[in-house]
Amino acid sequence: MSFLSKTLSRVKPSPTIAMTAKAAELKAQGRDIIGLSAGEPDFDTPENVRDAAKAAIDAGKTRYTAPDGIVELKQAICDKLLRDNGLAYTTKQVSVGTGGKQTLYNALMATLNAGDEVVIPAPYWVSYPDMVLLAGGTPVVAETTLEKNFKLTAEQLEAAITPSTKWFIFNSPSNPTGAGYSWDELKALTDVLLRHPHVWVMTDDMYELLAYDDFKFCTPAQVEPQLYDRTLTCNGVSKAYAMTGWRIGYAAGPEPLIAAMRKVQSQSTSNPCSVSQWAAVEALNGTQDFIAPNNEKFVRRRDMAVEMLNAIDGITCPKPEGAFYVYPSIAGLIGKTTPAGTHITDDEAFATALLEEQDVAVVFGAAFGLSPNFRVSYATSDEALKTALTRITAFCESLR
């Protein structure tokens, strides 16, 4: 009999973390590795946020807090959701976790039983299915298509829902594609959900503020108020505020669900870092002036990536509406061979060979549930991105 839990055998380690670790290992060996696999901005945390953290330390705000967050941060979250999304919540309806991942995980742990299904559009963030499995549920993957810019249609959602469906996980702008749903596109999905009152909605709005061109962010309970009582609206400060390492995520929803999530957190990690919480208060309440200039840099990088990747024979790369990823298809490269003799049988072979032969780290599409693709994070310097894209071009052109 194995000593380890059978539940653990249902899941796999995060492929994005694995690829980042592999790239770091090669870099430590002296290789000139350019990493396009990590999903975090290359900007520093804003100065006002850093100052708020220092002030909290100096004021002795370094002790335990309530298990799911200080009331000041919960109020800042309520204010943000009303100001930006037109959603009214009280502090009793808010949970603060150690990063966005924990809030999603807590909700799944608090609600899923054996046999419960969770509909997840693919491509998806790598952790969604495994968190569902860890919580005892069954992920039901609904594949999108490149032709629809990787957006789920109402018909696809309808087909995925069964009497056993408990949650629908919705992420816009998306990791890994950057695809953002318009109000009308999201309304088509919420109309389906209205016909299935047993299905709850878990939104992952982490990339809300990273929206480009004419795209306007919206979230399900905002688009369809009738879904308010069965929606958990999740967000955090990691991406737009360049606070990935501070580990603050949050969720707002019905009080009974928030109370259940609090119970899970109280018996696992307990409270998020107290200093990080005070920094997050300043992030949400303080100046937002840095977001637009940062987004201008992301748009420039996005456009560079889309243009250079689409110039490669065998690659098709849609132009995303937000986040800091592109998700090109390599359908035209499958079956070819690298100069080192590696046969490109799938996107994992492509990503592995690219790292080994051109020193560029990306994440293969199978990790996100849809192949043959790979994910590029353009949250890096313009110079590093251009060099990496030049290497990708050379690699693809060398295939025979």
Automatic annotation (TrEMBL):
Domain of life here?
Answer: Bacteria
Residue stretches making up the Aminotransferase class I/classII large domain: 32-392
Q: Which reaction does it catalyse?
A: L-aspartate + 2-oxoglutarate = oxaloacetate + L-glutamate
Q: Which Pfam families match?
A: Aminotran_1_2 (PF00155)
Q: Which UniProt keywords apply?
A: Aminotransferase, Pyridoxal phosphate, Transferase
Q: What is its EC number?
A: 2.6.1.-
Query: Which InterPro entries has this protein been placed in?
Result: Aminotransferase_I/II_large, AspAT/PAT-like, NHTrfase_class1_PyrdxlP-BS, PyrdxlP-dep_Trfase, PyrdxlP-dep_Trfase_major, PyrdxlP-dep_Trfase_small
Q: What Gene3D superfamilies does this protein map onto? A: Aspartate Aminotransferase, domain 1, Type I PLP-dependent aspartate aminotransferase-like (Major domain)
Q: Report the PANTHER family cross-referenced here.
A: ASPARTATE AMINOTRANSFERASE (PTHR46383:SF1)
As for family, the record states: Belongs to the class-I pyridoxal-phosphate-dependent aminotransferase family.
Assembly information from the UniProt record:
Homodimer.
Q: What's the protein called, per UniProt?
A: Aminotransferase
Organism whose genome encodes this protein: Cognatishimia maritima
